[in-house]
Amino acid sequence: MGFVRALFLLAMVCVAAHAKDYPKEEGAKAEGPATASGGGGGSTHDVLKLGGKGDGKTDSTKAVNEAWTAACAGTGKQTIVVPKGDFLTGPLNFTGPCKGDIVIQLDGNLLGSTDLALFKSNWIEIMHLESLEISGKGKLDGQGAAVWSKNSCAKKYDCKILPNTLVLDFVNNGLISGISLVNPKFFHMNVFKSKNITIKDVTITAPGDSPNTDGIHMGDSSKISIIDTVIGTGDDCISIGPGTEGVNISGVTCGPGHGISVGSLGRYKDEKDVTDVTVKNCVLKKSTNGVRIKSYEDAASVLTASKFTYENIKMEDVANPIIIDMKYCPNKICTANGNSKVTIKDITFKNITGTSSTPEAVSLLCSDKLPCTGVTLNDIKVEYSGTNNKTMAVCKNAKGTATGCLKELSCF
């Protein structure tokens, strides 16, 4: 999501011995203690036993928050269990620091209330943790379709931001695996000021026309890995914001969506550099962009985007498979004065294959005042899938080398 600032701002230990305590009917009140001692000084906190109802209608916010409070106060491994069922909640603010290691076992589904009056900011905020694990086969369902019509961000910058589904803010050493995120009100996931976060085997789903439903956005964070994840949404599948370094994206399938993007960069003052980004072994299907770097032409910050590698990427009918856009201006609500302050350099595109739904398979649209430098095109073989037009590269103010590419895409 290019024109919204990175916003400030949940695994795998479910004690099998407690499985028999779950009631057979969803929503029935369980017998036994709500919190049970686990091995190694840890405890398990069952949302159902704390009064949650898995009927999809009863507000279970209090039960989920009670589970968090108890878990955060405990030592050792603390497991919050969301059992099978549909648990409706309002905002969930999970703030640390906590005494132990937090695990959220999502076996059932959490549903975000559609009453926007309940939310001051986001739906699920997890803040100030040193160890977090979220796993299971359940879903975080933002139920966003009910409120997407209230999104006015395509028309103005100072729009009211709808709640993101899952926010990690100042979280270090996190693993999110197996779960699904569907139909957020705004972003599915937002990672801010966090370090050593792995997102693996996650499924993210929203309609292609849903507004600002970025899959995974990150900003001011480091050592972020996104692995073997499937994302189909209405905005960027993955967006990498300012101040981010050490990003590894591998085995990701994107589509529909706006592609895997760096930026947008330069919208605000004091933005930090983006460096050391690797995207490899990915597939993009019918997305509006493939791999993209975007910065505002009237950038307010002086910053550098550098050391990016895009390798072994397959495009399937992608509109802009390879694009650097230093004249980014969403919905024409910015000023195009050509005074770019963003430096883009040392970018490698290697073994990018497949088809483009537009003739322009490669677009390097750099600034005349700050040209892109050190751009490498190696084995770029993306062909236009339509008729009556030839595959082409459009390159402006870009300097680099091209080897092993289709003749039409050599660019330099």
Automatic annotation (TrEMBL):
Subcellular location: Secreted, Cell wall
UniProt cross-references to SMART domains, sorted A to Z: PbH1
Enzyme kind, highest EC tier: hydrolase
Domain of life per record: Eukaryota
Region (Disordered): 25-59
Stretches with biased composition (Basic and acidic residues): 46-59
Pfam families per UniProt: Glyco_hydro_28
Signal peptide positions (record): 1-19
Location, primary (coarse class): secreted
Alphabetized PANTHER family for the sequence: PTHR31375
The protein's name in its UniProt record: Exopolygalacturonase
Organism in which the protein naturally occurs: Oryza barthii
